[in-house]
Write a structure and sequence with these properties.
The protein is α/β, with parallel strands linked by helices and about 475 residues long. About 45% of the residues lie in helices and about 10% in strands. The protein has helices spanning about 5-20, 35-50, 60-85, 125-140, 150, 155-170, 180-190, 205-215, 225-235, 260-270, 290-295, 325-335, 335-340, 345-360, 365-380, 400-415, 445-460, and strands at about 100-105, 110-115, 170-175, 195-200, 215-220, 240-245, 270-275, 305, 320, 395-400, 415, 420, 430-435. It has a seven-stranded mixed β-sheet, sandwiched between helices. Helix 8 (about 205-215) links the parallel strand 4 (about 195-200) and strand 5 (about 215-220).
Length: about 475
């Protein structure tokens, strides 16, 4: 018998005897009533003490804790092995340089052409953007150590919010630590059980998670299917508010939401339109304002959420821009805003300068179209299937997760940095390599990327 078992038996027996001793039954050893009372009192104290006292160190039940840990370890190892076995394991390559069209990658020699960053305008390493970040760091410090409403709002935060509102031609803006936070914070703050939210089935995970947090009645319509959206809008007429939520540009497929039809239906059924513009802000539309500008419906889209972490400098941060009353409500109720530290001054400085450059000239944004067309047309001519339409996100559709991973690894050996995307990032059976074109890619860079794809595709049987 183990020490723990011996101790448990001893304690149990002692408590049993003491329980008897503290009872009203006569004690065999008692020779007087006073001794009996004293013994009973002591016995009662010892009973209470032993029941409250844990087992001595080393004599407890660590096996239970160890058993729970072992069980957790077994579950985790099973999950991880399943991911590896399915070929969907996502490793992290280590970059040893700044972000740009050419990067240094640990374990690889020389410059690597980067074709999978969200650095659409090439501003992540723009000298003026970096200088602005350094100036903000020197003047305003590393951070605020506070949320906005306590002591975390500097004049540069307000200036950036005003600048974003002006850029999007909206009344006001609220900053978040990320657009994921912006999406997590808007639906719960605005919508109640009296309302309805209608969401495209392929919306970004942050929109899906944000909708899950709210108590509104939830509808999911088929991807860009306006007939299905109309049927659900008709059903949602019984609710107070109706909101249609969609990505402007869908990040996995590179397709653009039919905002003109969405806005038409929303007007017909008195719904407000919410658009996530993370993969559109800065480069879609004549002035880079996004899909609402591209499709001529800026005055019909009520709310825009977007990011500072892609085309606008690439550091971090997100925002909601729209009616002032909505922004005022978010400042009072949006939990990610109320309980997260303010954006660091360096991030604010970089994003502010990126917006300045964008508003000074649309030349960078306009250069994207020709480069996107060049890559898409050459890849299609080579025999690849490229998803989406006229967007710098160019998914090379492969289907098999292992194939996507192996081809991405071989592309790196040829000096091209791309990543295979598979479940759960995309649906099972729809694995792809997502290529992203940047304004700072040259025509020679694009041609070299296509050539590498053709070589690797033939090697792995993706091309004849």
């Amino acid at each position: 018998m183990s020490c723990a078992a011996h101790w448990s038996c001893f304690r149990g027996g002692l408590i049993g005897w003491l329980g008897y001793a503290s009872s009203d039954l006569p004690l065999a050893s008692s020779s007087s009533s006073s001794l009996s009372l004293c013994t009973r009192s002591s016995a009662m104290w010892w009973c209470r003490h032993l029941l409250r006292t844990p087992l001595p160190p080393g004599l407890g039940s660590p096996s239970r804790a160890q058993s729970a840990l072992a069980q957790l370890q077994q579950v985790l190892e099973g999950e991880l092995e399943g991911i590896r076995g399915a070929g969907t394991w996502k490793g992290e390559r280590v970059i040893t340089s700044r972000q740009g069209p050419r990067i240094q990658v640990e374990g690889s020699r020389g410059d690597i052409l980067n074709f999978c960053a969200n650095n659409y305008l090439g501003l992540s390493s723009h000298p003026k953007v970096i200088r602005s970040g350094l100036e903000a760091l020197e003047k305003y410090g590393a951070g605020l150590s506070s949320v906005r409403f306590i002591c975390g709002t500097q004049n540069i935060h307000k200036d950036l919010e005003e600048k974003i509102a002006r850029f999007h031609q909206r009344e006001d803006t609220i900053l978040y630590a990320s657009c994921f936070d912006a999406n997590a914070g808007i639906f719960e703050a605005l919508l109640t059980p009296e309302d309805a939210i209608l969401s495209d089935e392929l919306n970004h995970a942050s929109i899906i998670d944000g909708i899950r947090l709210c108590k509104a009645n939830k509808y999911r319509y088929k991807h860009m299917d306006m007939q299905d959206l109309e049927a659900k809008l008709q059903d949602a007429q019984k609710y107070r508010l109706r909101m249609v939520a969609t990505d402007g540009a869908f990040s996995m497929d590179g397709d653009i939401a039919p905002l003109q039809e969405i806005c038409r239906l929303s007007q017909k059924y008195k719904a407000i339109v919410f658009v996530d513009e993370c993969h559109a802000t800065g480069f879609l539309g004549p002035n880079g304002r996004g899909t609402d500008e591209l499709l001529g419906v800026m005055d019909q889209v009520t709310i825009i959420n977007s990011t500072l972490g892609k085309a606008l400098g690439g550091a971090a941060g997100g925002y909601t821009t729209g009616p002032k009353a909505l922004i005022d409500l978010l400042r009072q109720r949006s939990r990610p805003y109320l309980f997260s530290n303010s954006l660091p001054p360096a991030v604010v400085g970089c994003a502010s300068k990126a917006l300045d450059l964008l508003m000074e000239s649309n030349a960078i944004a306009q250069s994207m179209a020709a480069k996107t067309t060049r890559f898409r047309s050459k890849m299609a001519a080579a025999g690849f299937t490229i998803s989406g339409n006229d967007h710098p996100i160019c998914p090379v559709m492969l289907g098999d997760a292992r194939l996507a991973s192996l081809m991405a690894d071989d592309m790196l050996k040829r000096g091209i940095y791309v990543i295979g995307f598979s479940y759960p990032v995309v649906p099972k059976g729809k694995a792809r390599i997502r290529v992203q074109i940047s304004a700072v890619h040259s025509d020679e860079d694009i041609d070299r990327c296509v050539e590498a794809f053709v070589e690797v595709g033939r090697k792995h049987g993706a091309l004849p």
